[in-house]
Amino acid sequence: xxxxxxxxxxxxxxxxxxxxxxxxxxxxxxxxxxxxxxxxxxxxxxxxxxxxxxxxxxxxxxxxxxxxxxxxxxxxxxxxxxxxxxxxxxxxxxxxxxxxxxxxxxxxxxxxxxxxxxxxxxxxxxxxxxxxxxxxxxxxxxxxxxxxxxxxxxxxxxxxxxxxxxxxxxxxxxxxxxxxxxxxxxxxxxxxxxxxxxxxxxxxxxxxx
Length: 209
Prior knowledge:
Layout (H helix, E strand, L loop, with lengths): L1 H43 L6 H17 L2 H16 L1 H15 L11 E6 L6 E12 L2 E9 L7 E7 L4 E3 L3 H9 L11 E5 H12 L1
Antiparallel strand pairs: 1-2, 1-5, 2-3, 3-4, 5-6
Helix pairs in contact: 1-2, 3-4
């Protein structure tokens, strides 16, 4: 019985991730086909599996190609500006765009850097992303986003004193991979700089002077 149980556990470890991946890809495949499948079927009078996925890939390529051109980039930026100004649509589009922009190295907004905060109790540390800073009557505060694993699109936003926000020697991509994997894909070494972000900023300013 022990042998059977051990073999089954090993099989589950391999099969379950594959099954989840297949289920997610199939769900995305069916959703995309639901957009373009019906009109293509009406035009060709035949069911073409995968037409939604191909259409989405062509759309990505076309938009990327347009961005390569100066005029196309300006047109896209103009459309993005209009989208953010529409009352209801802008409330959804703006944070979605900022979230995607956060994964690019040239992002001007979004996740500035990876930090850690001591939460929910002393000695317990949470990975977070610095998104902004703000001034209050209590001094400068750091606005941090603490994602939940393994779905980083949900989480909570905290306003923490800058002296309680500490930098970590991790890139945004590394931290996001850590969250998505539920901590499995964790770097072997994490340099927790126990000088707060505020102290580091002051020290950097002193060196520049």
